Amino acid sequence: MAPHILFVVADDLGFADVPFTATDSNVKAPTVGRLAAEGLVLDNYYVQPLCTPTRAAFLTGRHPVQLGLQHGVILNAVPDGLPSNETTLAEVNIRLQHWSAQI
Questions:
Q1: How far apart are CA 78 and CA 75, in angstroms?
Q2: DSSP 8-state class, residue 15
Q3: DSSP state letter for 97
Q4: Measured between alpha carbons, how far is 72 from 33 in angstroms, rounded to an integer?
Q5: Measured over all CA atoms, what is the biggest interatomic distance in the chain, rounded to whole angstroms?
Q6: Are 28 and 34 in contact (CB under 8 A)?
Q7: What is the Cβ-side half-sphere exposure of residue 55, based on CA atoms within 13 angstroms?
Q8: Which of 28, 73, 89, 92 has the fewest CB atoms within 10 Å, counting from its CB?
Q9: Is the pTM above the cut of 0.85?
Q10: pLDDT tens per residue, the chain (103 residues)?
Q11: Residue 64 burial (CB count, 10 A)
Q12: CB 30 within 8 A of CB 44
């Protein structure tokens, strides 16, 4: 049976903002805490300072510079975005017959 994989990427989240990384956190997040306790927390991985480069790297596994998305945020109604010839993590999962969704 294929494993269940859940990636959670949160913009503007500080290390001590969630209870499973800081004992003095005031945040109540029992479900997230349970997922962290029962799963694997990748807590030493660094993101880009903006959401667009972070998301582009996450979706493709490539550095944002390789995608031309390292400098800014993609705004609404702008025809920029991930190059259409890029293969995404979701496409690889579908090819491997794994269910894939983004929320």
A1: 6
A2: G
A3: T
A4: 32
A5: 45
A6: no
A7: 13
A8: 28
A9: no
A10: 667 777 877 767 777 788 888 777 788 888 888 988 888 887 776 678 788 888 899 889 999 999 988 888 888 877 778 888 999 988 988 888 887 776 6
A11: 19
A12: no
Question: How far is the CA of 44 from the CAs of 27, 41, 82, 100, in angstroms?
Answer: 21, 9, 26, 25
**What length does the chain have?**
103
Lookup result for tokens 């500080």: 14
Q: Give me the pLDDT at residue 97, please.
A: 82
Residues 6+ apart with CB under 8 A from 54: 9, 11, 47, 48, 64
Chain-centre distance for alpha carbon 23: 24
Per-residue model confidence (pLDDT) at position 88? 92
Contact call for residues 55 and 72 (beta carbons, < 8 A): no
Residue 29, H or E segment: none
- Tokens 């550095």 found at: 63
d(CA 84, CA 95): 17
